Amino acid sequence: MAVVIRLRREGAKNRPFYNVVVADKRSPRDGKFIEIVGSYDPVGKNQEKQLKLDRVEHWLGQGAKASDTVKSLLRKARAKAAAA
Fold it and tell me: Which of 33, 38, 73, 83 has its CA 20 to 30 A from that of 60?
């Protein structure tokens, strides 16, 4: 089973909100998932990102592939965690 870490769209029309999920590659974007590992609000005041870095690292260690957008969010979250 190929596992990916990707965004799952939630929210209303013109007001998107995304959950960062671990899912089977074959499942649809908003379909079944294995675990929610974070959230991302692109419309919020400061584009709020909340990621469980320990769970993301666990899944990456198990062979999961992150989408390009999730890679970008991870890079920013790791930089923020290192600065704190």
Answer: 83
Report the number of distinct structural domains present in the chain: 1
Nearest 5°: phi and psi at 82?
Answer: -70, -35
HSE (side-chain half, CA atoms, 13 Å) at 18: 20
79: tokens are: 């930089």
Q: How confident is the model at residue 34 (pLDDT cuts 50, 70, 90)?
A: very high
**Residue 36 carries which side chain, given as an amino acid letter?**
I
Residue that the structure tokens 């890679």 belong to: 71
Q: The whole model's pTM is what? A: 0.89
Q: Which domain holds residue 79?
A: 3-83
